[in-house]
Amino acid sequence: MGFLLSKSMDANLKKQQEFMLHNSRLQMERxxxxxxxxxxxxxxxxxxxxxxxxxxxxxxxxxxxxxxxxGAIKRKKPALLAPIVPLSFVVVYQMDSxxxxxxxxxxxxxENILASERDxxxxxxGIPTFDSIEKARRARSSLASFLEK
Length: 149
Description:
Layout: H1 2-75, H2 84-99, H3 102-116, H4 130-148
Helix pairs in contact: 1-2
């Protein structure tokens, strides 16, 4: 009788472990999907910001370029055209960021770094561990209790 009960309990335990594994797998998949959606939304906001900034900066650049060109012609001083060069670099960068291939080039470079320069990504003092976090928490807790006295 005890053997049958033990066998039944082992089967139930195994089913429960499989159920827990399945649930934890589902939870992790959901977390990965949620984090990816958040990343996509943040990237969309960054691209939208670049496009909005380009509208304002493009207007400023156009007004500045027309004004500087008119001033250079009127005063016969070609040196007044000099600020257009650095300002145009910013316009081109923003256009590339907002509508061009900058994001694809950045992604390619990031993939290259991950593939061949992984050592550059190491954190100072390594990845935080449970023990290091607990040590910092205890130190902070004891400091707070010391300051309260």
